[in-house]
Amino acid sequence: MYPSSDAEKICILALMHTPGIGAVTIRQLISYCGGATQVFEADYKRLIKIPGIGDKIVKAVLGKNTLELAERELAQCRKTGTQLLFFNEPDYPARLRPLYDAPIALYAKGNTDFNWPRTVGIVGTRKISEYGKAVTENIIRDLVPYQPLVVSGLAYGVDITAHRHCLRNNLATLGVMASGLDVIYPAVHQRTAFEMQDNGGIVTENALGTKPDFMRFPARNRIIAGLSDVTIVVESGRTGGSLITVEFAQNYHRDVFAVPGAINEPHSEGCNFLIRDNKAAIFTSVADMAAALGWGEGMPEVAPVTSGDHSAMTFEGFTQDEGQVLSLLKQQGAMQIDELAWQSGIHLNRLATLLLNLEFQGMVRSMPGKKYGLI
Predict the structure, then answer these.
(1) Which BP terms does GO give this entry (predicted)?
(2) Contact at 8 Å (CB) between 43 and 131?
(3) Protein fold of 109-293
C-alpha cells in the first residue's frame, strides 16, 4: 500500500517519532495492520497480538502523542521543498528497499533518480593526502564515460573532493547526511551541497533540524553502502567511518574496492589491510573495475538481461523458496541480488545461500555486478 494520502504519511512520520520504535518494528506494525493509519486506529488487544510488539510499544502508539508533530513536519517539508520518500512508495530507492535496516523514510532535495542504473560510493579519510586527492580526481574523470551516480558523505577529505570533482565533470552526485537537510555539516560545504542539487542532491533519514550527533554517522554510512553498487575506499586509517561503510557493503553483498597506498603511510593502512584480508578488491583503474563489474561504456539498457530461452523449464523438486527464485529469473531474466530479494521477499543472507546452492546444482550462474541468471 502506497502512502498516497496525507493521513497515511502523517501516521508513518508519527511512528518514526514514537519513542522505542525502530524501522523493523514500524514495518511489523504496518504489515500486520495493513497501513500506518490502521495502526493508530487499532486497539490494545489487536496491537499486543503482533509478534515482537510488547506492552510498552503498544502504549506508546496508543498515546498518539507524535501525530501533531508529524503533521507539522509534513507541512514544513512541503514549505521548504523537501521531498519525502517512504519505504512503501515506488520512488523509494530500489537498492535500499530489500535491506533489513533500510530507513522508513528519506528526506531529499535535488534533481536525481535514486534508481540510477549505476551507482558508485566513494569514501575515505577526512585527512586526505595529495596522493588521495589525485586518485579521487582521476577516478571521477575516468567514471564519466560510464555515467554513474556518485554517492558520498559530504564530509571533509575524500568525500568533498569526490563531490566537487563530480560537479566539475558534470557527473551526478549525491551527498548522504548525518543531520537534517537544513543543517549542512560541515557548514563550509553549504555551497557545494547547494550546487549538487542541480545534478544530484542531498539526502538523509533524519528529520529537519536534526543535529549531526556522533551516533548518526555510522547510520549514515549504511545508507551510502546501501545506495552503492560498488564502494571505493580511496584512503583510510585502520579505524574510521570508511571501514564501517565497508562492513555494511559486505553485509549487503555489494562490491568493494580499495586503493592501495604506501605501506608506511597511516592514511593507507586501512586500504592495504582491506586488500590483504580479502575484504576489498585492489583498485587499479576505473577500467579494470568496470570490467570486473561487467560494465560497458555509456548508460546500460533498462530492459532486463535475459539468459536464453527457458520457456519450457519447470522447477519441480525444488523447495518453495528455490522455486520462487527460479521462477523470477525465468520471468525477468538476469537480476541483481537486491532486486531479487525485494521481489521474492527473501532476506538477503538467506537468498545468498539459496543462490549458492542453486549454482552448485547447475541451475543459476553468477554474473558481474552481483547479478544472477538461469543457465
Answers:
(1) DNA repair; DNA-mediated transformation
(2) no
(3) Rossmann fold (3.40.50)
Distance CA 338, CA 100 (A): 11
Partner residues linked to 149 by β-bridges: 119
At 55, list the grid cell: 506492552
With residue 354 as reference, give the H or E element that holds it.
Answer: helix 348-360
- CA-based R_g, the chain, Å: 22
Per-residue model confidence (pLDDT) at position 310: 45
Could you say which residues of the chain have pLDDT below 50? 1-2, 302-310, 312
Q: What is the pLDDT of residue 3?
A: 56
Q: What is the pLDDT of residue 300?
A: 62
Report residue 12: phi and psi, to 5°.
-65, -45
CATH number of 1-79: 1.10.150.20
Which three-class secondary structure string do you get for 35-67? CHHHHHHCCHHHHHCCCCCCHHHHHHHHHCCCH
What angle, 0 to 180 degrees and rounded to 10, lies between the N-to-C axes of helices 337-344 and 320-332?
120
DSSP of 153-217: ---TTHHHHHHHHHHHTT--EEEE-SS-TTS-SSGGGHHHHHHHTTSEEEEESSPTT----TTHH
373 grid coordinates: 541468471
CATH tag for 320-374 (out of 3.20.20.70, 1.10.10.10, 1.20.1260.10, 2.60.40.2340): 1.10.10.10
Instruction: Tell me the residue type at 351.
Output: L
pLDDT at position 180, please? Answer: 96
Q: Is 335 helix (H, G, I), strand (E, B) or coil?
A: strand
* Residue with grid cell 495502526, as numbered in its chain: 39
Query: Nearest-CA neighbor of 160 among 189, 131, 202?
Result: 189
Is the overall model pTM greater than 0.70, yes or no?
Answer: yes
For helices 269-276 and 241-251, angle between their N-to-C axes, nearest 10 degrees? 30
pLDDT digits (tens, 9 = 90+) for 295-321: 876 666 543 333 344 454 556 678 888
